[in-house]
## 1
Amino acid sequence: MITIDAKDMTTREINRKVKELKDGDMVRIVNPGAKHFLLAGLTKEMEVVLEGNAGYFVATMVHGPKVIVEGDAGWFAGDNMTSGYLEVQGDVGDGCAQGIYGGTIVVRGNAGARTGEIMKNGTVIIGGNSDFMTGLYMMGGTMVVLGDLGSMAGESIVRGRIFVKGKVKSLGKNAKIGEIDEKDEDYLRDLLKRYDFPSFTDGFRKIEPIRTRFFYGHPTEEG
């Protein structure tokens, strides 16, 4: 395990030092100081643990690494991730998983507003609540929220699905809510078990688009 003490380092210095390491390395960053843009653009197959809180845009635009934040994270955690894994063991701010193309983001605590906004693919699990406009303009992928959803959930959703176990304050435009089927139950059970959440599927419902609109060459349901 390689340890980097970030107390007296700038974000640029931290990120440069991590990017100089090799695929397969395991790194622990101590005293991250909630700095913004930590690990931005990291494209190596490595594991990085932040021992503390992260600021805005932690692990933005990463491709491949496994990143664990042993604290809270600010706005836009995992923004535009293409592959890899991000786990935040505390809470996250607004815009977590914005625009992701792939990979998995796990938040053990609560999330702010607009979680999964314009996400195209990938998987997001929120262990607590997620605030208003969760899934705003969602274009694909899967979100699982074990707590409650705030107002306008699934606002203008195009594709994808949001599984929710708690209460839904209100739905946004083009969003509908329904019961889950046996295939959904199997999927949820396996996913939650894999990431160390209780794998009980009782109470889950699914938010989906009422109709899929034209998007990147795909026809609508109406043809």
## 2
Amino acid sequence: MAPITAEGRHRGRGARYAGPLACAVLLLLLPACSSLINIDRPIGLSDPVKHSVASPASQREHRRILSAYGGPYSDPALAALIAGMVDRLVAASEQPELRYNVTILNSPAINAFALPSGNLYVTRGLIGLANDGSELANVLAHEMAHVIARHAALRQSEARRVALVASATAKTLNDSTTGALALAKSKLALASFSRAQEFEADGIGIGIAARAGYDPHGAVRVLTAMSRFAGLRSASGTDPRSLDFLASHPATPERIENAANNARQYAAGARDEESFLAALDGLVYGEDPVEGFVRGRRFLHPKYGFAFTAPKGFKLENTSKALLGTKRVGEQALRLDIVRLDSQPTPAAYLSSGWIENIEAGSVEELTIAGFSAATASAKSEDWWFRLYALQRGREIYRFIFATKSKTPAIDRSFGESIKTFRRLSLAEAASAKPLRIKVVTVAPGDTVERLAGQMALIGRRVDRFRVLNGIAANDQVKPGDRVKIVIE
């Protein structure tokens, strides 16, 4: 969960989930649906010639990205490996005069992206999913290709056009259906525009990687790994594609096929597996405890000193914006975030301030939770019923939203029992919170996928997760001498 959000001066109305209350459901669910199979999310400046890596505009975007992705991840050995990798790729690129600055982001998200200035970003989550140097090299080459082809500038221009269409539609069309159709067509045009960019960047990037001596099929393997990771998430109840069908990236099967066709044009290159896995050993896996972390239904935040357990059946995800949870996706959801106010309204006053619309009359009730002043209320939209809690800690408000499609006394009681699990962490608990890490081990005689997966410090579907983490197909087995990744505490 990201650092506390500053909400500003409280003047009887807090920042709210604008529009119909149903919008709150999107705020509960949408961040959890951020793309898990993106290889790029360029953020618009305009031109690598006009904007240097150190330009004020680039630095503003850089700070924004660091804030959204948990800051930089410090690992000198890994940074040195990536720096050498980029040097090889630049020398083999169509524009070797361009310079790049690579930042490893301290995020478990599976993502990499580029600014047109030459700032490249890759999350430690994506690095940990790769199994050899050629896979990561192809990711970086793909992002370099976006810079070389000036895709970010083109995408920014198209995004502005879509925004103008949306604005003009809202102002000139009274028919909401017609307006929505016009906006949808504009978004579809943007999506198609971006898909063409992705295919082009794949082709350019694979060529760069191959000329640099890396195995061009690394692009195929890393795309396959991300597809399998997304499938694993989908099977666990979170489908990153369900609300993102107009995403800027093409369907992964298309990209895999396209990447394979491109890779066949080049000779096989080096995988650099040994040096890559050596640098990967010890990489933080999953959430960093500094930002809080999930263990099954439990969420612990050592920095802010609290713990909380979600209702039974919920699957939790810690994002840069909030803690999110779902139970039977589309039926129940929860969200926890923290805001800091300039003033100190009571929790009851905060719930009544307009933070969320349509609070049910007479439902606001004052409480004490774990020694903190708190309040609860209920709210109703056309399709959803909400149980809200606000817990005060000085000028901070801990905001809980529980949402359900079908309100029953048992469901409301489960929400109440969950909020009662909120507690302070002891100093010893906070100090002992350690991140999970990747450990690279050598397969010994007698080892099996199942035996190695059993050593993983993960909850649920260990075998499937071990296979995805190591790029091992469903029916394949490990062999003595293989080097594989496991996750340990």
## 3
Amino acid sequence: MSRSLLNLLAGLLLSIGTTLYAAEATLAAVAPVAEDPFNLVRETADRVLAEISSRKEELTESPGKIYGLVDDIVLPKFDFYRMSRLVLGKYWRRATDPEQASFIREFRELLVRTYATALLSYSGQQIEYLPLHAPPEAKQLKVNTQVKEPGSPPIPIDYSLYLDDEGKWKVYDVTIDGVSLVSNYRSSFSSQIRRYKLSGLIKRLADRNRRSRDG
């Protein structure tokens, strides 16, 4: 996945505080007893942006501190078990329990650091939510949005969420301009698994994460 795509993804996910809530009223008919997926994203973003604003000088001087911010506030809204299973595809079923656990851990850290790095340089875009089309009993849905920047055509951003057994909405994929985060990583990791095996991919991810921590 290109750096520009990752930066855009991170910025969009963490900047919903500047959005237009065109579809918010529609949501009430989708899951009246569950938490609101729009509010889930909005409130998460508001917390992150408030922290960034109040600690701007501190985070600029010590960028590593932003990792904990992303880890604590943003990523709990993701289902990394489901994401990891989808990213590995057929290789997930072949993996041992320890391999699955190791992959989830390293993949999660990779995304933490990707989002955190991008957030430090986030400049802010306006994001508009589009009307939501989902039946009242929906257990999975997509929140369709588009990014608007002056002088550029809108970029579609789709958030895939599902309702878990506790009535909480979890993000398991994000699609930017037709490019799925899960599909993109699945393609990249699949080629590495064929070359290095799953154990080799996990080791490479662990090495990359360790270098990021040490750096």
